[in-house]
Write a structure and sequence with these properties.
Blueprint (H helix, E strand, L loop, with lengths): L2 H8 L1 H20 L2 H32 L7 H33 L5 H30 L8 H5 L8
Length: 161
């Protein structure tokens, strides 16, 4: 197994983990269940770690796919550039989650405020990581591109009728 395999396997974790963790956290906030919030925090920590792994295996994946005929270097660069925003967002989420977990375990009065803040950061992170995943999908899944691989590689764009 190489970096490309790991990248392709792990990239789904931050996408699904950030939304699932956010939804579990929302439920924990709504039901005022400290145990549910803690479970959500664990999901979000795993999601954040997955984002770090996905980001750092991305370079190896890029080296693999850029050699494949018909692959657009422009789309690879868009994906790579936007991945940094997702990584920063999920890293911030991870730090806030650790604070929230600490406060929840200590039964602090601030734990609800941090939980709500964490929920909104998880939604933002989800949006960023979904867009990153969409851009990554365009690298090999030409069926989601509006232009053919040849047109994309040549820098051309198909016009709508």
């Amino acid at each position: 197994m190489n970096q490309t395999h790991i990248h392709l396997l792990i990239t789904h974790l931050p996408i699904f983990g950030s939304i699932l963790g956010g939804l579990v956290l929302a439920y924990g906030i709504w039901t005022k269940s400290n145990q549910t919030k803690i479970a959500a925090y664990y999901l979000l920590i795993i999601s954040s770690i997955g984002a770090v792994i996905a980001y750092f295996t991305g370079e190896g994946a890029e080296e693999t796919v850029e050699k494949i005929p018909g692959i657009s270097k422009n789309i690879i660069e868009q994906h790579s550039d936007f991945a940094m925003y997702a990584l920063v967002s999920l890293s911030i989420l991870g730090v806030v989650v650790l604070i929230g977990l600490f406060l929840s375990l200590r039964k602090s009065t601030l734990s609800r405020t941090i939980a709500i803040t964490t929920f909104f950061i998880s939604l933002i992170s989800f949006g960023l990581v979904v867009w990153t995943g969409y851009l990554g999908g365009k690298i090999r899944h030409t069926e989601i591109n509006s232009a053919s691989p040849t047109q994309i590689q040549n820098g051309e764009k198909e016009k709508d009728d």
